[in-house]
Every structure is written in structure tokens, then in C-alpha cells.
Write a structure and sequence with these properties.
Distance between the termini: 36 Å
Oligomer: single chain
Strand content: 5-15%
Shape: elongated
Number of helices: 5
């Protein structure tokens, strides 16, 4: 993977560098340093946003920072489907006056929410685990000069990051309802 991948840590470091550079420009009266520092901070903010961006197509997620690809836990997909079917049953049961169908829909929707949440937690955990294992493995491989392992572990890190960010984005989206 490219060493130009956006990451939250890199963006925080760049933001701090830009702040320091801008402050030095202010103290010394150097407009160039101040402007360059502000530009560095703006670029860091954009990198941070990019590192948190995840595109989704069905149960697949792709990192906006050029890194990984991840597939959602089947519980997330099935849970979402059960919520949709449950809501439909509830609406039809309510519309035609079928209390049994309505109650069945409410129950299926509730179970789907639990199933989806379980899948999200699973993806958060496995994504975080892969990020850590990938970062540590890549670091060790880099120290030993093993480029093949370093790249393999970088892919593991990037895929884990994508899986984690995908679950995080879904949870954030649902909490805004």
C-alpha cells in the first residue's frame, strides 16, 4: 500500500505542525510562514476527513483514503433485511387490521435491530483487531526489512480500518434518527 494513505494520526501531526508554523510566522512577522502553516492545517483537516470516509455498496465498504475493502458481517445485512420485512408486516397488518401480522412485524423488526447491532459490534471488534495487528506487523516487518510482509500487514491494517469505519458510520447514522 502507498505511504501516502491518509490517516488520523498523520493528520493530527500535520495539524500540529501547521499550528506551530503559523505561530512562528505570527511571532516573526513572516506572512509566508503563517500562510504556509494555515495551508498545512487545512490540508491536515482534509486528510482527517478523508481517512474517516467510507463508501458503501450493499454489504461492501471501500475506504476513501485509498486503502481497504471490507464486507459487512452477515448479521448486519440480515438484521437490516429483517427490520425492513418487519416494518412492512407491521404496516400491512396495521392497514388491514390484522393484529397478529402487526405484532409479528414489530417482533421481527425488533429482532432485526438486535441482529444488526450484533453484526456492527462484531465488525467494530474485528476491524480494530486487524488494524492493530496490521500496524504492529507492518512495523516489525519494516524494521526487519521484509517488504512483502510489510505490504501484507499494511493491507490487513487498511482492511481492518475500513471494516471499523464502516460499522462506525452505520452506528453514527442510526444514532442520528
Amino acid at each position: 500500500m502507498s505511504s501516502d494513505n491518509s490517516s488520523s494520526l498523520k493528520s493530527y501531526m500535520d495539524q500540529a505542525t501547521g499550528t506551530i508554523q503559523s505561530a512562528i510566522g505570527s511571532v516573526t512577522g513572516s506572512t509566508g510562514d503563517k500562510v504556509e502553516g494555515e495551508n498545512t492545517k487545512d490540508k491536515a483537516a482534509a486528510e482527517k476527513d478523508l481517512s474517516h470516509t467510507v463508501g458503501k455498496v450493499g454489504p461492501f465498504a471501500v475506504s476513501g483514503s485509498g486503502g481497504g475493502v471490507a464486507q459487512d458481517s452477515p448479521d448486519r445485512t440480515e438484521g437490516s433485511w429483517n427490520q425492513t420485512v418487519g416494518s412492512a408486516k407491521e404496516s400491512i397488518g396495521n392497514f388491514v387490521g390484522a393484529d397478529g401480522l402487526k405484532a409479528e412485524g414489530i417482533q421481527q423488526n425488533r429482532e432485526g435491530k438486535g441482529q444488526e447491532a450484533q453484526g456492527q459490534l462484531s465488525d467494530l471488534g474485528s476491524g480494530m483487531t486487524d488494524r492493530v495487528k496490521g500496524a504492529v506487523g507492518s512495523g516489525v516487518a519494516g524494521l526487519t526489512g521484509n517488504k512483502a510482509d510489510q505490504e501484507k500487514y499494511q493491507v490487513q491494517h487498511d482492511d481492518g480500518k475500513t471494516q471499523f469505519r464502516s460499522a462506525q458510520a452505520d452506528i453514527d447514522r442510526q444514532s442520528n434518527y
